[in-house]
Amino acid sequence: MLSYGDDSAGCMQKAIFEFKIQRNPMYYMYMIVFPSFIINALSLIGVFMRNSDRMSKLNVGLTNIMTMTFILGVMADKIPKSGSIPLLGIYIIINLFIMIFAYWYDPRLAWDSTKYGDIDMLHMRQERVWSPTLSLFKINDMMDLRDQDFRLVCVTNVGHVYTSLTLRVSVNCPMNVNRFPFDSQICSVQFNMPIFYMQQVKMFNEIYQGILNTTVWETMGNSEWDLVNLTNRIDLLTYNDMFGDMELATFEFKIQRNPMYYIYMIVFPSFIINALSIIGVFMKNTDKMSKLNVGLTNIMTMTFILGVMSDKIPKTGSIPLLGIYIIINLFIMIVAVGITVAIGELRKWALPRLKLKKHKLSQKLEYILGDPLETICAVFLELLTTANFIMMIIFWISDA
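User: That's the sequence. What structure does it adopt?
Assistant: Structure tokens below.
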């Protein structure tokens, strides 16, 4: 039984055929599970191996994390994310299944029921009576799911005609992706009657009250999008002449993206990789080439994440929030590598000169140019990385 509340008008029976399907996991076992197990086991041995320096252990850990990120990136299309909702530039195609209850008044169909055995209602094929030519405005595609032989109408003795339609509609919705992946989009479905003037036909629309509650909305949408609002109104489309004006019956709905996929695929791995890489770049008692390798590996990994996920990020003139997050992480690591190189050159130039001078200021500067300078830079960049990550989490929480 499908029910939209306490009223009986919205209740209907559904004949349900339920089938269960089971995924064959072999592909994922040899592509993800088994390689991940081997990589993790060997990495744990390397991280806790005795008589090895800290930089080598850190490199093993970072290589493991980046490999896991690589596996996630390559398998991104295999991980369930949403229904098939392709991105077309700054538009998104939304597929809707709509049930419409239409009714109109035709005085030509009225009759005196007392003269016809008190018959006050008739059911007949829709083609036998006049029906308004209802068209959809600004849509990509529309399909009437009713069988041709079962397009029926109900006619009452006072001239009221009732029918129902089940449509599959593809709507092009313009996207605002500044807050991607914490964005909400507003789409609309508009109906009009283009062959009639406004003076001849008056349009009105309403939303059935049974579906205007959040418990029903939870059954709509898919794994990436949730329905959060549904409204209706009558709009006026005018061309500033007396012939082109028409009314549009507008149903507007707001959908909100579920960002979890992007959190565990991009945001969290990027934060972990950046945080550990900064530690490696500024680690004490390690050679400059090892530090540079850590930084360059991080930069290449971030670039790889951007490349793999490029088809998931909408292509627009503005930079989405997720793109800004990754670019900031890239910039932080580039700065870290630059600081490491600059500190090395600064020490070569300044330390010999400071050692020649014996006053206290020279000694303090010599001390600061040692380990404290790297520690200060590392802490500052770690704070920037953490602040960048926290901002994304704040957007996520405020979006929930």
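The first strand starts at residue 87 and ends at 88.
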